[in-house]
Design goal:
Length: 145
Amino acid sequence: MSSAIWSVTEVNPAVDLSVVKSADRTEVTMGQTVTYRVTVANAGLNDATGVAVKDVLPANLAFLSSTPSTGTYAGGTWAVGTLASGATATLVVRAKATAVAETVNTATVGGEELDLDPANDSDSVKVCVQREPFCPFCLFGSTRN
């Protein structure tokens, strides 16, 4: 009589999270609004859990509003939660330019499972905030000839 020995190998789930960030404008003047769009995707074969995107606004941009397609956005972190295999989610953030500067805004995604391709876990957008154009006719008491 022969006996077989079985070996069980447990395979942990793996995902392929990615993030893409864009802005509606790359040049604004102080006081104008810039709208960022962040899209996170899971191209892995398993559902991703505990998905979160770190996306802190630069100091020269004041937060106005956010609209996540799922989860919540607070304190610079978008808590997406579970992202099914093949699914995407989107966050729209509106901010007001408050100071002149060239600024880079980066979004970085992470989750609980092993990410098979971490190279696409961050994306950045550069926005240049410029001074408002000078208008000599806007000065008090000026007249246009």
